[in-house]
């Protein structure tokens, strides 16, 4: 009989209106990277939350090294050597990076906190694994990518032997992903055991030894990665064949819908400006992608563009109207839709229902209110329509509290709301973050449909494959400046990587001359 370090046997976990895990068995070997694959809402994060003690299963048992264990909370999990990097970060926003990493395991002498010792260990870990952080920065002030690094360092700091990674690469750059996968393989070689939730089939093929597939809360099967392929895994995951290429005809750009002139945005972290003198246009009927390594000004630029933050100087014109000083609602009414980078902070009200979130941008319109009184039947009908069209899965349909939904389905809810809105410009920031291959295929089709319907699309993405496949023009941002404009038909991933790292620069004029 095989010796497993962890066995989850017949696990069943229910929520109102849904069986998230239906009699699932998962076995983890010592020293292996075991991938957990499934569509959004398939029950992957729920299963790992049961192992980490965040949820209690109604049926089934967990064994560690053959012994039945009871995990009532994360402290029990940590005591058993189980750590978890969460998809939705478990961070205290008003604490610093360092305080979050050491929270609960603070080194002390006779009750006095030894912060210098902790800082030294954290800095050493961050340097060893290439996870650059600012120990004294507040969590509320740092980017999503930086928060992800903090989550990973939290687990590394605790020296756990069973490591659960829930979508750890969702906001990392290609280089960071490569490094993290190398780190995971190194952990396995050291004898640590890794459970790795991901939607990215390439990552599974690169790093995993075995892969267990869930679909709609049920166990589909476990396969050896070296004897399978991406097509077979995607078929097990969604029950049908998936197209890995984006089917689109050449763009036919028309009039300018967005004109950005000399935009400069201050940094919250240092005295230098985060965005410097950025100028470009987006036309109706094209997808322009703003590419770059996370932390090079994209987040600050989008915040200024969408009205969440102010510009130091410059102007933004939407459909011929100057919106440089307009409010978020004024920009929305003027024809801008926004799929935000941080879905929890800027995309959803987590304790509202799904139907309430679906009309956040439109509840004041006559369709949904009369003399200040909401038309609940109209809101319900509208939400049900979007839920069906965009395949948003939840336990109780439109009355589901959004906080209880899977991350991928929260993302689909935002995308449904923003794409359905009457807009001329769609600003899509990491729109496929945390989505499975079936949902990514669908979202890419939606972006192309928006383009073909004569809308302008500004896509901000860290995914090189997405940048190359979806965009008609690529603008590369490095240290707050546009350093290159590339044509996806004539460039390649290697050249794009050089621009993203600042090793290469050009101007629009040079591109024209080269053409």
Description of the molecule:
The protein has 515 residues and is an alpha/beta fold. The protein has three domains: 6-238, P-loop containing nucleotide triphosphate hydrolases (Rossmann fold); 247-335 and 423-515, 3-Layer(aba) Sandwich (Rossmann fold); 350-421, no CATH class. 33% of the residues lie in helices and 26% in strands. The strands form six sheets. The chain has a six-stranded mixed sheet, with helices on both faces. A hairpin with a 2-residue loop joins β11 and β12 (218-224). It is globular, with a radius of gyration of 23 Å. The N and C termini lie far apart (64 Å).
Give the helices and strands, then pairings.
Layout (H helix, E strand, L loop, with lengths): L5 E10 L2 E11 L4 E6 L5 H8 L7 E6 L2 E3 L4 H6 L2 E4 L11 H6 L5 E2 L2 E2 L1 H14 L15 H15 L3 E5 L7 H16 L3 E5 L3 H7 L2 E6 L2 E7 L5 H9 L17 E11 L6 E11 L3 E5 L6 H8 L7 E6 L2 E2 L5 H6 L2 E4 L3 H5 L6 H5 L10 E2 L2 E2 L1 H14 L17 H14 L4 E5 L7 H16 L3 E6 L2 H7 L2 E6 L2 E6 L6 H8 L7 H7 L1
Parallel strand pairs: 3-10, 3-11, 6-9, 9-10, 15-22, 15-23, 18-21, 21-22
Antiparallel strand pairs: 1-2, 1-4, 4-5, 7-8, 11-12, 13-14, 13-16, 16-17, 19-20, 23-24
């Amino acid at each position: 009989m095989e010796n497993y370090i962890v066995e989850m046997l017949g696990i069943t976990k229910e929520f109102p209106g849904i069986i998230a895990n239906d009699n699932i068995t998962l076995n983890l070997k010592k020293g292996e990277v075991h991938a957990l694959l499934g569509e959004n809402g398939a029950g992957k994060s729920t299963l790992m939350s049961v192992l980490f003690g965040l949820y209690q299963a109604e049926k089934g048992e967990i064994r560690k090294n053959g012994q039945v264990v009871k995990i009532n909370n994360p402290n029990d999990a940590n005591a058993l050597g189980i750590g978890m990097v969460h998809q939705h970060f478990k961070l205290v926003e008003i604490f610093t990076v360092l305080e979050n990493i050491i929270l609960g395991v603070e080194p002390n002498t006779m009750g006095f906190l030894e912060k210098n010792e902790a800082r030294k260990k954290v800095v050493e870990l961050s340097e060893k694994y290439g996870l650059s952080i600012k120990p004294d920065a507040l969590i509320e002030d740092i980017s999503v990518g930086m928060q992800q690094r903090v989550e990973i360092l939290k687990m590394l700091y605790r020296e756990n032997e069973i490591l659960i990674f829930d979508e750890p690469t969702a906001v990392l750059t290609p280089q960071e992903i490569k490094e993290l996968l190398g780190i995971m393989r190194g952990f396995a070689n050291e004898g640590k055991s890794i459970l790795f939730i991901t939607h990215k089939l390439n990552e599974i093929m690169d790093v995993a030894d075995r892969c267990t597939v869930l679909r709609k809360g049920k166990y589909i099967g476990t396969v050896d990665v070296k004897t399978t392929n991406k097509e077979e895994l995607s078929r097990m995951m969604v029950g049908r064949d998936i197209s890995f290429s984006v089917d689109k005809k050449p763009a036919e750009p028309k009039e300018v819908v967005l004109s950005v002139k000399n935009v400069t945005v201050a940094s919250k972290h240092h005295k230098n400006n985060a965005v410097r003198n950025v100028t470009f246009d987006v036309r109706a009927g094209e997808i322009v992608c703003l590419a770059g390594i996370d932390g090079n000004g994209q987040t600050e630029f989008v915040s200024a563009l969408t009205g969440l933050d102010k510009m130091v100087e410059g102007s933004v014109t939407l459909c011929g109207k100057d919106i440089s000083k307009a409010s978020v609602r004024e920009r929305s009414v003027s024809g801008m839709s926004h799929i935000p980078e941080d879905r929890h902070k800027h995309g959803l009200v987590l304790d509202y229902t799904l139907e309430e979130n679906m009309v956040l941008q439109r509840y004041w319109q006559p369709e949904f209110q009369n003399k200040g009184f909401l038309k609940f039947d109209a809101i319900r009908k509208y939400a049900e329509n979007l839920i069906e069209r965009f395949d948003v899965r939840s336990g109780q349909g439109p009355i589901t509290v959004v906080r209880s939904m899977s991350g991928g389905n929260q993302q689909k809810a935002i995308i449904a709301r923003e794409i359905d809105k009457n807009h001329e410009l769609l600003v899509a920031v990491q729109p496929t973050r945390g989505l499975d291959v079936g949902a990514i295929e669908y979202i890419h089709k939606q972006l192309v449909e928006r383009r073909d319907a004569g809308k302008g699309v500004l896509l901000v993405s860290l995914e090189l494959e997405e940048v190359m496949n979806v965009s008609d023009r690529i603008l590369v941002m490095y240290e707050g400046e546009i350093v290159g404009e590339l044509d996806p038909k004539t460039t390649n991933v290697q050249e794009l990587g050089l621009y993203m790292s600042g090793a290469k620069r050009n101007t629009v004029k040079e591109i024209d001359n080269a053409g």
